[in-house]
User: Fold this.
Amino acid sequence: MYRKYLSVIIVAVIAFVMCSCGIITISPASPGGNNPQATPAATSRPTPTPERFTVIFDENEEFETDTQQERARHIDPHIKTAIKLLNTVPEESLAFNVHSMDHSTLPKSEDKITDPLELQLYNLFCDSAVNFETFRINYKQFGERQAYLNAFFNTVDKYHLYHPELYMYMDIGSDGGYDTNGYYMPGDWMDNQCSNIQDVRDTVDFYWRIVDRIVEKAPQNSTNREKCCYFAFVISSVNTYDHLLTSLTDFYQSYNCLVDGKAVCGGYALAFLELCRQADISCSYIKGYSPDQSPANPDETHAWNEIQTDDGPIYVDVTWYDTDEEMNIYTDGHFGYLFMTEKKYQHEGYQEIK
Assistant:
């Protein structure tokens, strides 16, 4: 009898000690009198960090024309890629302020032309290109032959320099003693003049719709520098450097970059310039020699961009950024060859053609 009671007392003491030490736990009885099995504590999951930059694409978006739908299918995947990459950029590296600029308020290119004959020819070239009109002229309409030829060639150079967006599809040449203009399909106009001007119009219109789509889809409330990043990322996604140089016109055609997806430095730089212009961001186009080039070989030139900031000029070389070695590398916030300070720019050895 005593042994029985002693055994019960020993078991009770051991159970009490184990409960006190947390070795075993007793769950409260359920209302039905049965103890449910203990459920493991829920594992806490980290709250995902919201993306700083987003862009909305409506799957049911309706387009007014087939051209608009085609441009969306062409460029939207590259916009999505650019936004995804933009979200990987450290926020602190996007801090400095890039200036805005209403390019429409800048002094007009023709204001730089002082010779009356050159100005007359310049206006003729530009007005014809904008309105898709043709002209046929010679020196007899303007006076002395040598003076006319000097003015003509000077004006052609200015037209090429000041209006690459027009030079993209209209150029000036000579035909049977007359000087005339011709229209070419953007990206395909080395001696391939197009007789159907409406086709040229439609192709140029498609290009501008691509530009508009890229600017329109820039993240809302993004700063100018964030937009510059976004533009560079879109360009790098859509374009592949044309090592074969399939067309000499690729050097200066942003059409080849944004539509064909194959261009060289001029295409990169002009595409970046045009996107910044449409977004009212301070930007200019620079032609010169890259670190691996020399003025001793003037046939090899390079093109890049300059933007204005509170800290002075910053240089953007989207071409050299768009390499396997540089892509996605953010060095001290300068992204390799994107956003080069004056110090880095000089250190790299860029030389401008004044």
